[in-house]
Write a structure and sequence with these properties.
Elements (H helix, E strand, L loop, with lengths): L1 E10 L2 E10 L2 E12 L5 E8 L2 E2 L6 H13 L11
Antiparallel strand pairs: 1-2, 2-3, 3-4, 4-5
Length: 84
């Protein structure tokens, strides 16, 4: 994944982190990862959007780690969802 921006905002009382990205095998397609973050800093929902549509994508563990690291580089500290 190639990430090019990261921003944090609040929508409907929920903290959201948006990360713009491209997949290396689709260099002409721009995606947005939308992470819903709880008050404790744990991501409660991971979504991937293309042209405003939910891709119903399941992020792989290495992708989750890369997104968390990228957000951290931009001063946004988040963690993967707690195991149940």
């Amino acid at each position: 994944m190639i990430m090019d921006y990261c921003e944090r905002g609040i929508s409907e009382e929920m903290v959201q982190v948006h990360i713009g990205l491209q997949f290396e095998d689709e260099p002409d397609s721009l995606y947005v990862a939308e992470l819903a973050v709880g008050d404790d800093g744990y991501v409660t929902e991971w979504k991937l959007f293309f042209n405003g549509f939910d891709c119903k994508y399941t992020f792989r563990p290495d992708e989750i780690e890369a997104l968390i690291d990228y957000a951290g580089e931009h001063g946004i500290v988040i963690q993967a969802l707690k195991s149940s």
